[in-house]
Amino acid sequence: MTEYAEVLAREKFKRLDRTKVNELLSKLKKLALWVAPKVSLHEVIQDPADNAFLECAVEAKADFLITGNIQHFPFKKYRQTLVLTPAEFMAHIIKRGLPPRRRR
Description:
The chain is mainly alpha-helical. It is built from four helices and three strands. It has a three-stranded mixed beta sheet with strand order 1-3-2. The chain starts with a helix and ends in an 8-residue tail after the last helix.
């Protein structure tokens, strides 16, 4: 959550309505499935800190890992998780819909 807040505070996102950004982050925080990864991965070479996102996706058995840093993830899928940009994710759900929610 800290990284999302930091990224959304960057200059290129300054045009976004801060109130809406804060509301989104608050909703994400409440609705998120919080996991503590049990595995340590080293798949993301370009920015090793991004391995934390992949570790969380694996632990949560996530359908999607949505990132603007697609260049840091040289694979389109890792185990059960599709790695998509926000635009790719939107196109995916418009075309196919979201997968049914799994019990975790």
